[in-house]
Structure formats: C-alpha cells, structure tokens
Write a structure and sequence with these properties.
This protein folds into five domains: 60 residues, Roll (Ubiquitin-like (UB roll)); 173 residues, 2-Layer Sandwich (Threonyl-tRNA Synthetase, Chain A, domain 2); 246 residues, BirA Bifunctional Protein, domain 2; 35 residues, no CATH class; 93 residues, Anticodon-binding domain (Rossmann fold). It is of the alpha+beta class. An eight-stranded mixed beta sheet has the order 18-22-23-30-27-26-24-25, sandwiched between helices. 35% of the residues lie in helices and 27% in strands. The chain binds one RNA strand through strand 14, strand 15, helix 11 and helix 18.
Length: 646
RNA sequence: GCUGUUGUAGCUCAGGGGUAGAGCACUUCCUUGGUAAGGAAGAGGUCGUGAGUUCAAUUCUCAUCAACAGCUCCA
C-alpha cells in the first residue's frame, strides 16, 4: 500500500500502481468525469500513469492552469492529426500549449493555407474528437524513434530527437496519429468539444531567423461550446479597448506617413493627458530627492563611441547627422545615459554628494525594426521618464528599494494591479555577451533579488534576459489582448561609469567608481499611456481626463449661462468645455458619453434661475441638480483623491 | 528584417473588367428641443503607389509602400 496526500492534507491509502484516475473515481464520479490530468509530486502526469510510491496528488481540471495547458497540448496533437488527414505528407515542428490555447508549427511544402482552410481543419478536428480516441503513452528507444520519423520523413522531429537522451523518449498516440512528446495528455479526444483555429502566421524553426520559416497555426479549444462563445465575445470586447482604436476615437494621438513611421503626433487631448502624467511623476520625484536636468536631442559621435553604443547599434540605428564641418557627426540620442554621465563629470563629486539622482523626461530615437512598430507601444521616437542614480556600491540596494517604492506608487495611483515583476539575470551558460566582472554581476544580481524580496514583491526570474551591461527588474503589464509589455524598469549598470571614467572622492580621499542605476517608472510616456488607455478603456480617472466636464445647454437660450458656468469651473482649474452646437440635449449627451467625458453639466431654464447645473456622470447617468459651487467641490475632491474612474 | 492577410470618402465598411456607393462625421437651412442619435439639402474619392495584360483596369497580374497578426529584435 502507498500513501497519497491530497491538497487538503488528507492522506489516503491505495494499492501501489494506482492511477490518478482511480483516485478520482474513489473520491467521486463527478470529479472523475471532469478530471484532465494530475499533478504528482509537482509533476503533471497522465491520469492513467501508475503511481508506485507515496506521493502528493492534485487532480487537475479545466479550472487549473495546468489542466487547461494539458487540454490545449492534447488539442495541438488533435490538430496535427487533422492536418495530416487534410494535407498528407505535412511535416510537423513543435506544437505546445500557450497561455490561451495552442499552436503547431508545420511545414506544408509548396502548399499554402488560408483562413478558409482553417474552417475545414476545425471541422476535421471536431470529427476526430468525436471518435473518443485515447491518448496513449509509450516509451520508445532512441533507435526506434529515429527509425519511425525517418520512415515518416519528418526531419524536424529527427532534429528534436537528436537532442534527447535514449531512455527518456516517449511517443503519444491518439487515433491514427503518433507524435514525439513528453506529455502529459488528457485521457481522450472526446473531452474536446469546441474548436476554434484563430490565426495563421510564420515562425522560424526553433526561433532562429536564419532557419526555415514554418507555418504556425494558432487555435484554442474548450470543453463546451458555451466557453468558446464567451471567449469570442471577450476577444471582441478586448478589441474595443485597443489603444490604437481609442486613440483615434478620443483624438489622443495620430501617425502620419509623411512625418515618418513610428513617430507619434500627440493631439491636444493626448498632450493634455500626457502632461498631467508627467507633472504627477515630476512632483513625486521632487519629493524623493531627484534633480531635474535637461539635455539636447543630439550628441556627438564621440559620446557614443565612449558609451559603446556606436559599436553595438551604430549601423542599425538612425544614421549620423553631418555638419558643414568635414568629418563631424552627430547622432540623435537613443538614450539619455551618456548625456547624464557627462553631467555627473561636470563637477568633482564627493561620497557625500551621493546618491545623485538626475532626472529628465528625455526624448530618444531608435530605429526599431519595421515589423516591430506597434501603435504607441513600440515606436521610433519616444520620451523616457528617465533618471540615473549615481551611488556608492553600498547604496545600491537601498536606492533600488526606493525606486521600487516609486514604481509601486505610480502603479497604485493608476490602479495597475495585474503587473508581474520580472528579475532579468544573465544567461546561466553563455556569459560571453555580458560585460563587467563576475563579482560585480553577482553583487548586482543579489542586490536586486534581496531588494525585491524585502519589498515583498512576488517576482519571476528570467535567465538570459539581462541587458548586456547589467541585471534589471522590469514591471510587465498585459495589453487588451494579453500581450505582455515592459513598463517600469530598474537596471543596474557597472559599464557606463567605467567607460566614462566616473569617480567620486571617498572618505579615504581616494578615487572610487560610482554605480549607476537606470530607472523609468513609466518606461516611456508612449507605452505607458498606451497601456493606460487599454487598462481603463479610455475612461481616464478624473485627474487625468483631457476634458473633465462639459456644459450642455438645453437650447441656444442658455449658451450664455453655460459659458459662465464653464468660466467658473476653469477658474477652479477644472478642464471644462461647452457644447454650444444647435443640437438636442439627447445628442449632446450621447456624444459626451461616447467621448468618455467624466461629467456632463446640463443647463436650462431651471438651472439658470439659481446658479445650478444638472449633473450627469459618464456611464452612470443623472445624479441630480446641484449648485455650481457644490459641483466644483465635488469634482475637485475627486481630482485630489486621484480615484480611478469606476 | 521574415511569413501571411489587408489597402475604396475624415471614420466604419459594401461593391465590382465599361472611370463608384451606404452609415457616421462635415457645411447650410429648418427646428429651440430636458438626460444616449430631430428633419432637409449639400459638399467630399482619378478605389495606396507604379508598371503590365486588355478596345477598356478601381476590379486581373507583377512590383512597391503602408497597416494588421505572428516570428525575430528591443541600448
């Protein structure tokens, strides 16, 4: 007999060799029908796999992340089976589950598939799913595995097998389809009740842009049709929040091919929003000891030779600006750090001056790959809410913690609650791409890990994601359709102080090298605002709304009064407008609602008589008649509180 | 940069080998209306750009540019 520990701590005894499915059956029939896979000692297993020793067991259903992943992984196999049926001779790359669904990379040879073909494949998948084929696991020797895929003529699978050790190769089969796979899988195809193949795209084999591009088919499946319908609805809703769409509708920003790709033009309302955000952070930074500086938009070539950026990015970036002076070249600044290093150097620094925190909303230009440009989230000209902290090595951790506080303050103020904090460290194996001593890297990596822990941040560690000059802590936020973007960032840099020969005089009267911390709580104004737009679906909190209130006269007769109310609001720093068009009140309200103006002040005969307005809140409706003064107080209280717009 | 899809009025989109249409927005007039679209008239496009096929191209073919999705990249 063996002991199986369940998640609630209960320990039950079973015969050795019991399967997770047996355990599920012993608990309840209903559970046994729902269960997809099982977590055995923290490893996800097939339900049918025998458990021979004492173990902890968690039964995974559709409600578990791992349950869904298993379901989608099995769906990828089902799609592969359908693809082989529809396109005989298709070669298969890899087909994993992803956050929302799955994909399979395939080589179709000379054939091409279109969106309509996806419908055919969906039908085939549904048909195969109904056959209720079991997913069966089989251990295979390397020799047999190679033989199988050689006969099948699938060079991609053969390449994958090459990287595997004999004795740890498994095949999974369902229906007439067999795939090289570690597993695990759901018990049978009949669990898959609803199928949607979402898109076709190209993807390099093994993510290497020098290798062949395969066709990637994305899909998602569900255990019932209702969930699929809900998912489709959710996607449609998400698309309405897209910052590119809202940016156009709310007249926040635009792009012009004539001005240039990836160079945003901020319209008056967008500029208003952006300036509010900038002032908000500036205030917080002044309170925490940052010193504003201003530097030019270009820098001499020598600046970037010193910084090392010329060598690393010179050819792939905006090309130099020439001057009448023969051989003289300037670059548009791709970052603010070198300029700030020169500010540091302008004056001899003592250990007593540190940390020195130089802050600048600095606009930079980077020639991003054409295919990378994306709304405001990836552009070629953007403004960083940049600052560089020059400090002594013993101050790094403390400074780091202060920056974490600032980033969290910013996120909290804008109610970004669903962020992830990612610590990016060096690649575990390949260390050739990093500069600086192992010792300094160790210190910096430790400082970040400790500072994050002491601040109670729950972080994920990503190896190989560090910048070439130092480790970093990034704050990632998802956009409307689930793509992750980096917003706030804190990076430790031992490189630039070295290259610029920055020093300070220590207590010992000797010269020492400061450590530099790059940090940007927003990341960039552009990207932050993009995510903010999607986060609040264009309904900005009152303190940020470009127009905070609009006065809507019932008819021409009240325009004069409406303008007086507008002036009273403006005198109290409320951004107000008047809709004095010759339109009915219903239409004015409708448009103000669609423009997401937080407050509407309806004025007519009744209001004009005793300095009142009928107040209406966007998405909430009429909230009754109030005096102008009451209204101003109400709005200003909300502005002060920086409340999120509910 | 790579693969695929798309490109018609300011916006959202329909159409289709014989030089174009809707709704919204815009302009003018009527209307002075109390909480999500009042009515009428008008203006607006050589159908992304260039070439080819054709008696004829916005429609077919090729190239190119841009947008979108994904990949690669991201100081």
């Amino acid at each position: 007999m063996i002991n199986i520990t369940l998640p609630d701590g209960a320990v039950k005894q079973y015969e050795a060799g019991v399967s997770a499915l047996d355990v599920a059956v012993s608990i309840s029939e209903g559970l046994a029908r729902k269960v997809l896979a099982a977590k055995v000692n923290d490893e996800v297993w097939d339900l049918s796999r025998p458990i021979n020793n004492d173990a902890s067991l968690k039964l995974l259903t559709w409600n578990d992340v791992e349950g869904k992943a298993t379901f989608w992984h099995s769906s990828a196999h089902l799609m592969a089976e359908a693809l082989e049926a529809v396109y005989p001779g298709v070669k298969l790359g890899i087909g994993p589950a992803i956050e929302k669904g799955f994909y399979y990379d395939i080589d179709l040879g000379d054939r091409q598939i279109t969106e309509e073909d996806l419908r055919k494949i969906e039908v085939k998948m549904a048909e195969l799913a109904k056959t209720n084929s079991k997913y069966e696991r089989k251990d295979v020797s390397k020799e047999d595995a190679v033989k199988y895929f050689t006969e099948k003529g699938d060079e991609y699978k053969l390449e994958l097998i090459e990287g595997l050790k004999d004795g740890e190769i498994t095949f999974y089969s369902q229906g007439g389809f067999t795939d090289l796979c570690r597993g695990p899988h759901i018990p049978s195809t009949s669990f898959i009740k609803a199928v949607k193949l979402t898109s076709i795209a190209g993807a390099y084999w093994r993510g290497d842009e020098k290798r062949k591009m395969l066709t990637r088919i994305y899909g998602v499946t569900f255990p019932n049709q209702k969930e699929l319908d809900e998912y489709v609805l959710l996607l449609e809703e998400a698309k309405k929040r897209d910052h590119r769409k809202l940016g156009k509708e709310l007249e926040l920003f635009t792009f012009s091919e004539k001005v240039g790709l990836g160079l945003p033009l901020w319209l008056p309302k967008g500029a208003m929003l952006r300036e509010r955000l900038q002032q908000f952070l500036q205030k917080a930074q002044l309170e925490t000891g940052y010193l504003p500086v201003i530097t030019p938009h270009i820098g001499h070539k020598n600046l970037y030779i010193t910084s090392g950026h010329y060598e690393k990015y010179g050819k792939d970036s905006f090309q130099p600006i020439k001057t009448p002076q023969e051989g003289e070249e300037f670059f548009l600044k791709p970052m603010n750090c070198p300029h700030h290093c020169e500010i540091y150097k302008a004056i001899p620094r003592s250990y007593k001056d540190l940390p020195l925190r130089l802050a600048e909303f600095g606009t930079v230009y980077r020639y991003e790959q054409h295919g990378e440009l994306h709304g405001l989230t990836r552009v070629r000209g953007f403004t960083q809410d940049d600052a560089h902290l020059f400090c002594r090595p013993d101050q790094v951790k403390d400074e780091f913690k202060k920056v974490i506080d600032l980033v969290l303050y910013v996120f909290k103020s804008l109610s970004f609650e669903n962020y992830t904090a990612q610590i990016s460290l060096r690649d575990k194996d390949d260390r050739s791409k990093y500069i600086g001593t192992d010792e300094n890297w160790e210190i910096a990596e430790q400082a970040i890990i400790e500072a994050s822990a002491e601040k109670g941040l729950s972080t994920v560690i990503e190896y190989g994601e560090a910048a070439f000059y130092g480790p970093k802590l990034d704050f990632m936020v998802k956009d409307a359709i689930g793509r992750k973007w980096q917003l706030g960032t804190i990076q430790v840099d031992y490189n630039l102080p070295e290259r610029f020969e920055l020093t300070y005089v220590g207590e010992d009267n000797g010269k020492h090298r400061p450590v530099m911390i790059h940090r940007a709580p927003f990341g960039s104004m552009e990207r932050f605002i993009a995510l903010l737009i999607e986060h609040c679906a264009g309904k900005f909190p009152l303190w940020l709304a470009p127009t905070q209130a609009t006065v809507l006269p019932i008819s021409d007769k009240y325009i004069e009064y409406a303008k007086r109310v507008e002036q009273l609001l403006k005198a109290k720093d409320i951004r107000a407008t008047v809709d004095d068009r010759n339109e009915k009140i219903g239409k004015k309200i409708r448009e103000a609602e669609m423009n997401k103006v937080p407050y509407m002040l309806v004025v007519g005969e009744k209001e004009m008589q005793d300095e009142k307005v009928s107040l209406r809140k966007q998405a909430k409706g009429d909230i009754g008649m109030k005096s102008v003064n009451e209204t101003i107080e109400l709005l200003n209280e909300e502005i002060e509180s920086k409340r999120a717009f509910e």
